[in-house]
Specification:
The chain is an alpha+beta fold. It has 11 helices and 21 strands. It binds flavin-adenine dinucleotide (FAD). The site of flavin-adenine dinucleotide (FAD) has 42 residues, from helix 1 and strand 19. InterPro entries: FAD-dep_OxRdtase, FAD/NAD-bd_sf.
Amino acid sequence: MVIGGGIVGLAVAAELASRGDRVTVLEKEGRWGAHQTGHNSNVVHAGLYYRPGSLKARMSVAGNASMIAFARAHGVPVEVCGKLVVATSADEVPRLKALAERAEANGVPAKLISAAEAREYEPEVACVAALRVESTGIIDFPAVCDALAGRLSEHDLRLHSPALAIRPAPGGVEVATPGGVVRADALVNCAGLHSDRVARLAGLTPAARIVPFRGEYFELRRPSLVRGLIYPVPDPTLPFLGVHLTRMLDGSVHCGPNAVLALRREGYRWRDFSLTDVADVARFPGTWRLARRYARTGAEEVLRSLSRKRFAASLARLVPAVREDDLVRAEAGVRAQAMLPDGSLVDDFLIETADRQVHVLNAPSPAATGSLEIAKHVADRLG
Ligand SMILES: Cc1cc2nc3c(=O)[nH]c(=O)nc-3n(C[C@H](O)[C@H](O)[C@H](O)COP(=O)(O)OP(=O)(O)OC[C@H]3O[C@@H](n4cnc5c(N)ncnc54)[C@H](O)[C@@H]3O)c2cc1C
């Protein structure tokens, strides 16, 4: 049984089915990929950012190839358009060079290019140097979910079916749902923003807690300013910060995401608030340690969330022609980011095993890209 019908859960279910298992998928919402999978940048990452040898590095590089192949084989829209990471000032160049070395270590083809060469790809970009990565693509991840669900038509797929309680049973587990108790000989937790809670329901006491970080987007009124994907040089300590410009498959250009603490695990707007979720975050010692460590960065992210002018200014560092009135608010997403009690953010994918159980406890970006690889890893661990 797989709990969670996002891209990771469905990929795991499809992988188990391909190995001959009968699979049940429980998804609490009325459609597949309703949360992180349906609210992201839809980028098939190349795998250049991640620590060599980490699960993220291995699974994004392999996942880039397997996801693109899967999409092509199943009629899912995908385009390998490549991307530019741009250094906007001389002090960013050493970090850009370090990124090029990391790309090489991860086996990702990437080329350092001059500002003039960068403008051949993106005429409106402002930079002093750039890294060109050819294997990055754009895709429709919800369509990938539908294709995966389509491959599971002979199996037991249940929408509107939250897992409410889990208890061990002879030879496996029993899971209570509003429709009754479902039995299985093995359990995989792919519950994304609720993965720590589902792990606790199953009797684990994971050290890490999910902290929800909302990522807000704007759509560019003048999409002609951007041809492909333009990213800033990441800050190695907080790599998910830094808004980028992403051309989508329909030709629109999305700008974002930023990162602000969400006041509900599935809180897509500032007014979405859950006392349980806020209390959960507030009681966790890691939150306060993180807040102290990054007070200034956090405050800047909140200000940028509240001010379209600031958001536009961040984008204008990459593409100076972007103005405040070019930005139209688009749907946000919420990242499920695992945090440890010492306030550190879990960097790599985190997958824990218990008797007849596998729990995916940290699967932030690039887990959609790497989902087919995560699925193989999880199926191997189930044995
Ligand atoms: C703003 C943003 C931008 C991103 N950009 C990219 C990108 O460009 N490329 C990329 O590769 N990755 C990106 N990511 C990351 C990517 O979206 C996630 O890594 C991926 O979608 C995780 O998939 P998942 O199946 O683990 O989680 P989810 O898609 O969140 O699925 C978990 C599912 O579990 C269900 N669930 C929870 N609790 C229960 C329960 N008790 N019972 C039953 N069901 C339950 C939920 O309803 C949900 O549908 C981005 C993420 C965000 C938020």
